[in-house]
Amino acid sequence: MEGIVYGFSVALTGSNLLAALGGGLIGTFVGVLPGLGPAGAIALLLPVSIGLRPETALILLAGIYYGAMYGGSTTSILVNVPGEAASVVTAIDGYQMARRGRAGSALAVAAVGSFVAGTMGVAGLMLFTPLLVDFALAFGPPEYFAIAVAGLVALSLISGGSFWQALFIVAVGLGLSSVGMDPVSGLARYCFGSVQLTQGIELVPVAMGLFGMAEVLLVAEEAGGLPHLTAVRWRELFPTKAEWRRAFPAILRGAGLGFFIGLIPGPSATLSSFTSYNLERRLSKHPQEFGLGAIEGVAGPESANNAATCGHMVPLLALGIPFGPAVALLLAALMMQGVQPGPLMIQERPEVFWGFVASMYIGNVVLLILNLPLVGMWVSLLRIPQPILLVSILVFMLVGTYSVNNSALDLIVLVVMGVVGYALKKLKFDAAPMVVAVVLGPILEKSLRTSLFMSRGDLLIFIQRPISALLLLSALIMLVGPFVWAAAASAAGRRNPE
């Protein structure tokens, strides 16, 4: 309680309130417009955050993250155009409700569900992070190596597409993270005589290229036509009692499910929304309505994806390890400010941790108050001429990337990664594991080498310590398990051909 009271004293200052408001509005803007996504928007604003205090920068960038989760529901319901991958499920029943004249009810339930789930998720963040911190104080280099390995394996398994594709993308990301000066010996690695490459491959241009520029290229490739816009009046934003009775249990289930899925590496917001939709369809007394405008099909997934954003913050703040591209960029922002997330963050930088937690309570209230009355304005953003919008985003990317290090190399990396990201999306590869691998690469290398220094080269150190042994065993099971399961199923099929 002392911590959260202190956090509100930090979050309620003028600059931090403005950051929470600005982040929420920018995030909603990003969520409404298909293409850029929260990771790309955070990457765009990383240069802006350098001049801010650490707590203000984190509040601003996190506001973009959870604001984008909220904003994607608006166009999913009204226009059947999901602004975010996590809002694809919302469009299934939300748009059908809009076609039946219940768009206002769908928007209100989505907004209240996001608010309730966000608030419950922040409470979970506030409770779980200090508990995990106490546990993480027992971590040493072998444990950090093991959790990074387990995280990358889990991310490869559930990121979408085949496991081998994801593993290849992880390997490329780890390779990029090794370019530059060796942190131990000081020797240049993979620089090919280039002095500029000795600074290494920065995360900001990699993320901007893979998520921002690649999306701009994809959107530019598609024919942009204005879809039919559903008008919503203020008096229509009130669901009936029957709709509330059906929606509220779905909101609570989605919030709990989403938070715990957020603790898993990978695209947790998207995964949680699909899982919640399937759960609600199984539990519903009206399963025949799903796909035709079931209110639970809007309430559950929208709550789940907002709660998942809070769950994703727990390993970032407690362990300093990101489990997704957006939180990897939040980690980069904090490290640029000289703040190292991890077990000692609450003690060493309480204003950053508790101020951030309190700001998320405030941000959820701000999003609820502002966004429902402004539904018409958000939908009208789709009327912006596409060429103007895409050129503006490209200019922001180029200026923002160059301003971080004033390096022409970063501009080259941005363009190259934009083309690579575009090619990966056309080939149905998920680029998210590459960004996480770029962040975790130095952690993996440093913890591996430190562990081997501690044991004088004995690899048994990783299985002699219970936590690291358990984590590595879980990674091994995740790697081998699908093949064993497939072999067992094949053998069973041969024994029972009928």
Shape verdict = globular
Average residue pLDDT: 78
Query: N-to-C terminal Cα separation, in Å?
Result: 63 Å
Helical residue percent band: over 70%
Task: Walk across the major sheet and give the strand order.
Answer: 1-2
- The number of strands is 2
Quickly give the structural class.
mainly alpha
Please state the CA-atom Rg, rounded to the nearest Å: 23 Å
Low-confidence stretches: none
How many domains is the backbone divided into? 1
List the helices and strands and how they pair.
Layout: H1 2-11, H2 14-32, H3 37-49, H4 54-79, H5 88-99, H6 103-136, H7 141-158, H8 163-177, E1 180-181, E2 188-189, H9 203-221, H10 241-261, H11 268-283, H12 296-319, H13 325-336, H14 345-348, H15 350-371, H16 375-380, H17 386-405, H18 408-426, H19 432-455, H20 461-464, H21 466-495
Antiparallel strand pairs: 1-2
Helix pairs in contact: 1-15, 2-4, 2-15, 3-4, 3-9, 3-13, 3-17, 4-5, 4-6, 4-12, 4-13, 4-15, 5-6, 5-12, 6-10, 6-12, 6-15, 7-8, 7-19, 7-21, 8-19, 9-17, 9-18, 9-19, 10-11, 10-12, 11-12, 17-18
Feature tags:
498 residues; mainly alpha; two-stranded antiparallel ribbon; 2 strands
Please provide a written account of the structure.
The protein is mainly α and 498 residues long. It has one domain. The chain is built from 21 helices and 2 strands. It has a two-stranded antiparallel sheet. A hairpin with a 6-residue loop joins strand 1 and strand 2. Helix 4 (54-79) packs antiparallel against helix 12 (296-319). The longest helix has 34 residues, at 103-136. The radius of gyration is 23 Å and the shape is globular.
